[in-house]
Design a protein that fits this description.
Layout lengths: L29 H10 L1 H26 L1 E10 L2 E4 L4 E4 L14 E11 L2 E10 L5 E7 L1
Helix pairs in contact: 1-2
Length: 141
């Protein structure tokens, strides 16, 4: 008598070469392939790695979306951006990029971490809603 959760193992027979009836090494029947894919330890490891990768991708996407917010531009003064919320950002990039950004433009600000002049720093990626330009900046107190 078998326990309730046990399955009967499928017999594995190597494929025969029809020309001389000898066994062909390295071949597998469809049933062998399916039993290996469905029941094999390698399949469990592949599924686990896939599930882990999908979970990490989902978590990274959620974090990156949560680190962005909307604001509107009050004015531009040289390499400083003044927002209507009261925040002030100093540009790390060329200030000529923002020369044609108009007051009251909708701005998306995303918190980023990356390499700036050879150092790992936290900065903000600031872009207009119409996608005209993207600049990097740091917050001014």
């Amino acid at each position: 008598m078998k326990p309730a959760g046990m399955r009967r193992a499928l017999p594995i027979h190597p494929k025969k070469d029809k020309s001389n009836s000898s066994l062909v090494p390295g071949t597998m029947t469809g049933v062998q392939f399916l039993s290996t894919v469905v029941c094999g330890k390698a399949a469990v490891r592949r599924f686990s790695r896939f599930f882990l990768a999908a979970l990490l991708l989902l978590l990274m996407t959620a974090v990156s979306q949560a680190a962005c917010w909307e604001d509107s531009l009050a004015r531009v003064d040289g390499d400083l951006l003044f927002m209507r919320s009261g925040a002030v950002y100093q540009l790390l990039d060329d200030p000529r990029v923002v020369a044609f950004w108009f007051p009251l433009s909708q701005i998306t600000i995303c918190e980023e971490t990356g390499d700036v002049d050879g150092q790992l720093v936290g900065y903000y990626e600031i872009r207009t809603a119409d996608g005209v330009g993207v600049v990097r900046a740091v917050a001014k107190p």
